[in-house]
Structures are given as C-alpha cells and as structure tokens.
Amino acid sequence: MLAWAWLNVMAPITGSLTSSILSALPPSSFIPPGSTLGLLGGGQLARMTALAARPLGYRVHLFDPDPRAPAAPVCEKVWRAEFTDHAALKEFGRSVDVATLEFENIPAAALQAVEKHAPVRPHWSVLHVSQHREREKCWLRDHGFPCAPFQV
Fold first, then answer.
1. Which end of the chain has fewer beta carbons closer than 10 Å to its terminal beta carbon, N or C?
2. Does 18 have pLDDT greater than 50?
3. Do 99 and 120 form a contact (C-beta atoms < 8 A)?
4. What is the pTM assigned to this prediction?
5. How many CB atoms lie within 10 A of CB 12?
6. What b/e string do you get for 41-73 counting C-beta neighbours within 10 Å, with b at 16 or more?
7. Which residues fall within 8 angstroms of residue 69, CB to CB, at 6 or more apart?
8. pLDDT digits (tens, 9 = 90+) for 53-94
C-alpha cells in the first residue's frame, strides 16, 4: 500500500516511468454511489473509510478476524474469518463491487482470492512487492527509482 501511495505521489516527478508503470495496471473506473465497497482489515483507517463512504451512498462490507475490529460497528456486513479462509474470502468477494485493504500485512493470497470475484485495489502484486524488503528494493532499482545501495 505504501508503494502504491508512493507511486501516486511520485507521478509528477518521475513522469513517463511512473506513467508506464501505472498504464500496466488494470484500468480504474468510476464506482457509483450504491456500490458496495469491501475492506480487508478493520482497524481505525477502515473505520474512517467506512464513515466517509456511507454518507456518499456506498455500502461497506468488512473482512477482519478480530471480534473487536473498530470498523465493524459502522459496516453493513462483517466477515469474521482468518485471511487464509478462502471460502470466506470467496463469499466476501462475491458480496462487493470493489475491495481494498486497510493495512499492508494481509497475505497477498487473500487479495488474489477476492480478486477472482471483484476488483481489488491496489493489485495483489503491489502488496507482494511491498511486503518483502528485498523484493521492494529490487523492484525500485530495476524500475529506475533512486535507491540507496543495498546488499542482501
């Protein structure tokens, strides 16, 4: 998630390089009010997202194993299952129009499972890279981003 945000911030600075990276990603589209947003992870950021989305006409579904997830009371539907429960992830994915994640420690495989049924942003591959320091550094270096020398 941090890498995704970094790309968006760096777009004006890195120009065509970032444009080529972003153009390789699935096209985004308008998500009309009345759609159901899926949140993977139910912490404070998910709660703030749900509170902001509901007055705009969006329904919000939550997937989080924590029975005390802060976002749960403000979401229309909550799945309390582990991020490794592919049956629950499938059901969740089928219930939403688009999904996103609240924090970067969700297994990339969970995003892949949801993505079979609904678009997930950021794409699971961004999470896969950003969750591993070596992959992240190599990806940045290989794509021409400034990177301090490192050794693995």
1. C
2. no
3. yes
4. 0.74
5. 8
6. bbeebbbebbeebeeeebbbbbbbeeeebbbbe
7. 42, 43, 46, 62, 78
8. 999 999 999 999 999 999 999 999 999 999 999 999 999 999
